[in-house]
UniProtKB/TrEMBL annotation:
Protein name per UniProt: CSN8/PSMD8/EIF3K domain-containing protein
Keyword entries, A-Z: Cytoplasm, Nucleus, Signalosome
Main location: cytoplasm
Protein localization: Cytoplasm; Nucleus
Pfam families, per the entry: CSN8_PSD8_EIF3K (PF10075)
Organism superkingdom: Eukaryota
InterPro entries in alphabetical order: COP9_CSN8 (IPR033205), CSN8_PSD8_EIF3K (IPR033464)
Domain (CSN8/PSMD8/EIF3K): residue spans on this chain: 27-162
GO cellular component: COP9 signalosome; cytoplasm
């Protein structure tokens, strides 16, 4: 639902940029569009927008510069750096979007860890997800992941999500479908 809202917002902002007199729009429009591209992980359009923004608008505008740092972290897959630069006092017109971006990246990272790791140290998990030990404990309980007590740092044992079982189709069925398809194309 939120993603659809962002797609609509992006289309509206792109239209406003295209129809702007002299091709120059407000800093607010640039920052909203840049944030929308970042949320959608549309890093190519974010890059081209950054190149389109007049240098005079970039200079001295801390929020746009901070968004560019967020973009750079996403582009370089620098998760730890991302969490450092996303924690900024964003203006009211982009604060919700940047908060949602942070939450989305965090959820995607946790999902990726759950699928890719059989175990991970708590300090590495904390750095990758920007969570405190209390938050990690709560998340592990929610996801039914094990935390091995004892040594410091603790070891987290993610439970891999149940994979969908592939549909098994016999060779004869596949051959019959292929024969039917070729027959259909010939007629």
């Amino acid at each position: 639902m939120f993603s659809e809202k962002i797609r609509q917002l992006t289309a509206l902002l792109e239209k406003q940029e295209l129809e702007a007199p002299n091709g120059i729009v407000s800093i607010q429009l640039y920052s909203e569009l840049f944030a929308a591209y970042l949320y959608q992980n549309d890093l190519c359009n974010a890059r081209f927008l950054w190149k389109r923004i007049p240098q005079s608008a970039k200079n001295g505008h801390a929020e746009l510069e901070q968004m560019y740092k967020v973009y750079q972290c996403l582009w370089n897959n620098d998760t730890a750096g991302f969490y450092k630069v996303i924690n900024h006092d964003w203006s009211k017109h982009v604060s919700e979007l940047m908060f949602e971006l942070k939450e989305k990246i965090q959820a995607e990272t946790v999902n990726l860890i759950g699928r890719a790791y059989s175990s991970i140290f708590e300090n590495v998990f904390a750095e990758m997800t920007n969570q405190t030990p209390d938050m990690i404990d709560e998340m592990c309980r929610t996801l039914n992941w094990e935390i091995m007590p004892g040594a410091q740092p603790r070891l987290i044992m993610p439970k891999h999500p149940a994979a969908d079982k592939p549909i098994v189709v016999s060779s004869e069925d596949q051959l019959q479908k292929l024969t039917d398809f070729v027959s259909f194309l010939e007629n």
